[in-house]
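help with this:

***
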Amino acid sequence: MSKPFGVSSDHHFHSFTAFATVNDKGVNSRLQATLDAMREHAAAVKAAGGNKLFLAGDTFHKRGEVAPSVLNPVMDLFRELVAEGFEIYVIPGNHDLERNESMRVGNAVTALEALGVKVAHEPMVVDLSDDHKVVLFPWYATTKDLIEAMMSWRDELTFDEREFDQEPWLDAVIHAPIDGVLPHLPEHGLTHEGLSGTGFNRVFCGHYHHHRHMGDEVYSVGALTHQTWGDVNSKAGYLIVTDDQVKHYETTAPKFMDVDNVEDEEGLLEVNGNFVRVKIEVATESELETIRLGLLGYGAAGVVIHAMKKTVMTRATTPAPSGGHSIENSIKEFVTKRSLPAAAHALCVDILKEAQAA
């Protein structure tokens, strides 16, 4: 029987500017919230009886450039965790890499090796017990290369363990875009059925910022915390994994959330400690200020109000675009063809709606 272990992903350690302040130690408040969330994760794993933490990619946010004011606080945290007895294993995600290939020299997470953190620049096997292993796979430029690597390692490990009465239990940690985690994103051809077909008992996948059990024991880990408005309604947090159970837990870090009704007193209780966005038809600056102060009074950590002009009904109609394509569909096709992130699509749709309401 193996000890419980933790899995988290897409930490995106960075000095985000939205709603941020700087504390007396020079640390960005948004960065500090993510560091605190990582500390929460470690504490939960320790309380469960474990000491291994697996990070499933995108530890850092800015590709090819990590500021000292980000790197040093991150190094301080991981130094403390290692000193407390945690064994930490990290795979590089695409944001950690200077280029699109996983190479030690171009991987920002390499800096953590000096602290005793193990970084999987190539596939790495971690023994949890005699018959339970976790295999770490770094970022691959194509999903085809990833699947081939997973199948090759599965075959090799199964062959090596034939002296056992049964095949070893194998978990995999990867960083890749699984189709269906976020339905509005274009597909890349990597399905949970395909990952299950590699022969691993469980697969824990970073990359998309929404936690979801995809079926066939394939899990999208989700981001540790919310980071932008593109994360609204996504499920963030960390996993604690045992031999027979995978449980997701949220952290106390602020979330990005939309408020649809500023008069719903019960619903407004949820804004406490979170970053809030409101879209509302208003007439005066006084109304805007009243709404903003009201949300802050409910404990919102930050407020953004998108004020739209009140809609005036007329008889005029707008002809549908030729070719049977709506503007919304045209936006979706544009985002899909250019492989832009979900946040770009969401932002375009928001701008369109505001323009239509003006």
